[in-house]
């Protein structure tokens, strides 16, 4: 079904084999498989997934029964689709083939097309997010080197520390409501510099990675997009107390005559920064790997054991091999202090994912320092920022940024409550027990308790500046958080849960990693969740599947995301 919600200049459309509104059209596409390409139907099943997906996509775009699904043109030049990759989704037994839209050979920023196939190359669904750049000269007037030069002097309190390769893209400038040809400089390491005043002035902690968007015709700085989310050999089994005095069991690795905090099975490792400043000495991260002797510190135990707990969730529940999906290292660094934002000696009440690892500060708790890695929901939150960065790469601003925060909250909460199969009795507070004078950071069951909206009627349109929380990423995340709470606690008439925590985990994970892209909005999260539920539940009896899909739709309805 089409969706004309276009805050990023993009139009969405979705069809799915188990959606009654599109199943007839989809069946027609399947019946015509291979005809347009001159491929006999019996040959179709042995095609590689990309070829099969391209055939289905071509047929869908040409189908008169799907008038809303069209490939935009620019000055008579047709859309082309460049392949992003093919992925097997273990949770559904399906494969997704992902494409990006390009015009004149130039990618359209935020565009994303997913074709889902079953094990026999039969079409399961197609989701499209495409744009139609109009009145834009596709020939750049400035050289890439000029874009780098402009970025070095860009406003907003940033200074690039390393050169990157600018790439041309068509980009929708929401402020001017027009398309531009831009150079995109991605994942630029930055640091703050002083001198600016007002709402756009840098706060003590600027993002550590940004994307620069530079107009390729007039060299204007169109946008500076934050990318770093923040929080406000043979193993030996070890046992030690964590930050809350609880006994934890975890794996460490032999290193000479001692041990270090490295779990080779899960590729989890934990370091100490010695209260250094990760904003100033980023190149010194991850620090020194934590060793025994001396005895394990409680903060180190929390960071290490909690990261292992998250790694197990990734591998056993959503079937993902660590943050990058390839078994890469999951690195944590404790005892970090951003001095410009320190609340006292050795204190820094924040944590963040810096693009490659988790970084944790600590707060004063009586006479002791309490690491922000003490809470597994916070650790899960930061690690899922890494998962998002490896998959959807949701922009850290406005609705896409609020989704970035919300997915981290949702999975952090699910992980923290593992073992309790009844979410109606869960602890829904994020970061509880961390702050002496504050109960928690957020409450997913009742976002309004901590000054977050719980419904689109109360959505806050905040400036996309650091003072404006990048458009309210930690504020408006209360809305999708509430939707997740509603879904996890929805009951059927007999009192049973409509979906189990495992089912919700699967639906949300598939939506995040397979169906969302940089500029996805709240409505895209709804669409992605519904389509993911249909795919995940495709083997269930129809009445059961329909009830569960309806519960997903109702959860988003409950918070005004329609």
From TrEMBL:
Boundaries of every Peptidase M4 domain copy: 241-388
InterPro entries: FTP_domain, Peptidase_M4, Peptidase_M4/M1_CTD_sf, Peptidase_M4_C_domain, Peptidase_M4_domain, Zinc_Metalloprotease_M4
Gene Ontology molecular function terms on file: metal ion binding; metalloendopeptidase activity
Residue positions of the active site: 382, 474
Keyword vocabulary terms for this entry: Hydrolase, Metal-binding, Metalloprotease, Protease, Secreted, Signal, Zinc
Subcellular location field: Secreted
GO annotation, biological process: proteolysis
Pfam families: FTP, Peptidase_M4, Peptidase_M4_C
Limits of the FTP domain: 81-125
Domain of life of the native organism: Bacteria
UniProt entry tagged with the keyword Nucleotidyltransferase: no
Cofactor: Zn(2+)
E.C. no: 3.4.24.-
Domain Peptidase M4 C-terminal: 392-561
An annotated GO cellular component: extracellular region
Family matches, as PANTHER family: BACILLOLYSIN (PTHR33794:SF1)
Sequence similarity: Belongs to the peptidase M4 family.
Function: Extracellular zinc metalloprotease.
Name of the protein in its database record: Neutral metalloproteinase
Organism of provenance: Janibacter cremeus
Phylogenetic lineage: Bacteria, Bacillati, Actinomycetota, Actinomycetes, Micrococcales
């Amino acid at each position: 079904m089409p969706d004309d919600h276009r805050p990023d200049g993009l139009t969405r459309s979705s069809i799915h084999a188990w959606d009654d509104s599109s199943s007839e059209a989809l069946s027609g596409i399947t019946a015509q498989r291979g005809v347009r390409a001159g491929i006999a139907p019996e040959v179709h099943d042995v095609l590689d997934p990309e070829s099969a997906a391209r055939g289905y996509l071509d047929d869908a775009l040409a189908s008169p029964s799907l008038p809303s699904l069209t490939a935009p043109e620019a000055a008579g030049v047709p859309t082309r689709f460049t392949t992003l990759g093919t992925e097997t989704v273990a949770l559904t037994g399906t494969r997704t083939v992902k494409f990006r839209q390009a015009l004149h050979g130039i990618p359209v920023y935020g565009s994303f097309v997913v074709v889902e196939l079953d094990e026999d190359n039969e079409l399961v669904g197609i989701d499209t997010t495409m744009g139609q750049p109009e009145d834009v000269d596709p020939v750049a007037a400035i050289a890439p080197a000029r874009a780098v030069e402009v970025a070095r002097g860009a406003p907003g309190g940033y200074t690039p520390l390393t050169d990157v390769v600018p790439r041309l893209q068509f980009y929708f400038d929401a402020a001017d409501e027009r398309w531009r040809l831009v150079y995109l400089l991605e994942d630029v390491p930055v640091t703050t510099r002083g001198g600016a005043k007002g709402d756009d002035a840098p706060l003590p902690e600027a993002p550590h990675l940004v994307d620069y968007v530079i107009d390729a015709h007039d060299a204007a700085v169109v946008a500076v997009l934050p990318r770093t989310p923040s929080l406000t050999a043979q193993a030996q089994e070890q046992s030690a107390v964590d930050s809350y005095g609880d006994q934890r069991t975890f794996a460490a690795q032999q290193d000479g005559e001692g041990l270090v905090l490295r779990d080779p099975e899960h590729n989890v490792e934990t370091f100490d920064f010695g209260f250094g400043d990760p904003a100033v000495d980023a190149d010194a991260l991850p620090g020194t790997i934590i060793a025994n002797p001396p005895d394990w510190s409680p903060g180190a135990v929390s960071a290490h054991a909690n990261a292992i707990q998250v790694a197990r969730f990734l591998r056993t529940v959503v079937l993902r091999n660590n943050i990058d999906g390839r078994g890469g290292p999951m690195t944590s660094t404790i005892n970090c202090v951003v001095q410009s934002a320190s609340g006292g000696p050795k204190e820094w009440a924040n944590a963040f994912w810096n693009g490659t690892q988790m970084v944790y500060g600590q707060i004063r708790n009586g006479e002791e320092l309490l690491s922000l890695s003490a809470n597994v929901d916070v650790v899960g939150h930061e690690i899922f920022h890494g998962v998002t960065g490896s998959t959807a790469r949701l922009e850290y601003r406005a609705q896409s940024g609020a989704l970035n925060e919300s997915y981290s909250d949702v999975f952090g909460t699910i992980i923290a409550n593992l073992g309790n199969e009844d979410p109606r009795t869960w602890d829904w507070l994020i970061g509880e027990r961390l702050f002496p004078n504050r109960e928690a950071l957020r409450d997913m069951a009742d976002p309004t308790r901590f000054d977050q909206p719980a419904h689109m009627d109360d959505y806050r349109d905040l400036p996309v500046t650091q003072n404006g929380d990048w458009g309210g990423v930690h504020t408006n995340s209360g809305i999708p958080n509430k939707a997740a709470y509603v879904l996890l606690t929805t009951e059927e008439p007999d009192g049973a849960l409509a979906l189990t925590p495992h089912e919700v985990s699967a639906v949300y994970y598939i939506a995040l990693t397979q169906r969302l892209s940089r500029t996805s909005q709240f409505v895209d999260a709804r669409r992605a969740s519904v389509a993911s539920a249909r795919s995940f539940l495709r083997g269930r009896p129809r009445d059961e599947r329909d009830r569960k899909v309806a519960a997903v739709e109702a959860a988003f309805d409950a918070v005004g995301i329609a």
